[in-house]
Amino acid sequence: MNIVISDDMEKETIDALGTIGKVIYKPANLSEALKDTEVLIVRSATKVTKELLENAGGTKKLKIVARAGVGLDNVDVRACEERGITVINTPAASSNAVAELVIGTMICLLRNVQKAHLQMKTSVWGKKGLMGNEIGGKTLGIIGFGRIGSLVAEKAGALGMDIIAYDPKPRKDAGGNSKINIKFVPLDELLNSADIVTIHVALNPETKGMMDAKAIAKMKNGAYLINAARGGIVDEDALYDACRNGQLRGAALDVYGNEPYSGRLLELDNILFTPHIGASTKEAQKRIGKELVERLKQELEC
Ligand code: NAD
Q1: Rounded to two decimals, what is the model's pTM?
Q2: Is 83 a catalytic residue?
Q3: Residue 94's closest CA among 71, 76, 124?
Q4: Would 2-90+282-301 and 95-273 be classified into the same CATH topology?
Q5: CB within 6 Å of ligand 1 — which residues?
Q6: Percent of the chain that is helix, strand, coil (3-state, to 5)
Q7: Known catalytic membership, residue 230
Q8: How many angstroms separate the CA atoms of 156 and 99, rounded?
Q9: Domain boundaries in the chain?
Q10: What is the largest CA-CA distance in the chain?
Q11: Of 183-192, 216-225, 283-292, where does mean pLDDT reach its minimum?
């Protein structure tokens, strides 16, 4: 059995996959390679589109598309299903990594860490302009109380934040082990009352653009917005305006409408940028690899 891995992958995972089948790592011509492949493994870079599947001659052999990660927005699931291709992912493996990044960027934002760092590198010792705020006692508004949102709640609650959340269908088990008090509120109330809003929903037609100019205008004056979920959920033009005119004190972005991102938000000093590194910890990658191999073995019954 052939397994094509079309995006970067840790050696450990490639080796583990090698025990299931013959691994073809990053083939020069993906469409060609897919004609003789049972399993395709992708991360974020490869877009598994209808066109790719068609160009691969209908991919009659392909049985499984596996996404090493959570979101399936780079996989046309319907096109796969129409061809009888099973789509699997590793939903839980990176949750803790993303939640820790959110906590880290939140503290950096409120303490102006990115500004302080850049100043010192240009020999400026500017303590006065770096007066910050503490996250303790602030209200964190979590949009999407699933795997990641609930972990953020636990960690932020332990750091003394008040947690409010909006989710039409919160996970029953989310936050279950935590002693943190979480108040579920309607979206408008969350936007009106949170000092920091963090987004943890999947990108889908309902959530695309949910943080548009109208929603951002409902946020508290001087609040912060964090998006480590998916680009496209936050309207980047509206965010630019709000961060520029001071309605928002700042933002932190790990994800963008177009990646790699090179747009005008980069002009602004009150936005903390990371290049989609939410899941980029050695621990998460290990868990992703392990979960991926286990899921594949289940599907292939081997
Ligand atoms: P999850 O499915 O466990 O949780 C998502 C939650 O959002 C669910 O509880 C769902 O009920 C809720 N939801 C759906 N529509 C909503 C809406 N309109 N308003 C409010 N809540 C809504 O997902 P997860 O594992 O927590 O992942 C969340 C997001 O994080 C996904 O977009 C995923 O792609 C992203 N992610 C990003 C990175 C990164 O590298 N930055 C890594 C992993 C995951």
Answers
A1: 0.90
A2: no
A3: 71
A4: yes
A5: 70-71, 91, 94-95, 98, 143-149, 166-171, 200-203, 206-207, 228-230, 254-255, 276, 278-279
A6: 35, 20, 45
A7: yes
A8: 9
A9: 2-90+282-301, 95-273
A10: 65
A11: 283-292
Contact 148, 98 (CB under 8 A): yes
For residue 250, what are its two tokens?
A: 């700042």
**What integer pLDDT is reported at residue 296 of this predicted model?**
94
Q: What pLDDT, on the 0 to 100 scale, is given for residue 177?
A: 57
| Residue closest to 48 by CA, chosen among 27, 61, 64, 28 | 64
pLDDT in tens, 88-137: 999 989 999 999 999 999 999 999 999 999 999 999 998 989 999 999 99
* Cα 178 to ligand 1 centroid, rounded to whole Å: 19
Question: What is the pLDDT averaged over residues 168-175?
Answer: 74
Rounded-to-integer distance, Cα 8 and Cα 35, Å: 21
Instruction: Report the amino acid identity of residue 130.
Output: L
Phi-psi region of 261 (alpha: psi -120 to 50; beta: other; left: phi over 0): beta
Which tokens in the block code for residue 4?
A: 């094509």
The rounded distance, in Å, linking the Cα atoms of 220 and 108 is 20
In this structure, the residue with its CA closest to atom 30 of ligand 1 is 229
**In DSSP terms, which residues pair with 24 in a beta bridge?**
4
Cis preceding linkage at 260, omega within 30: yes
Phi (first) and psi of residue 155, to 5 degrees? -70, -45
Find residue 89's DSSP bridge partners.
Answer: 67
Residue among 101, 145, 148 whose CB has most ligand 1 atoms within 8 A, to mutate: 148
Superfamily of structural domain 2-90+282-301: NAD(P)-binding Rossmann-like Domain (3.40.50.720)
Could you give the C-alpha distances from 254 to 23, 115, 147, 151, in angstroms and in order? 31, 17, 18, 17
CATH topology of domain 95-273: Rossmann fold (3.40.50)
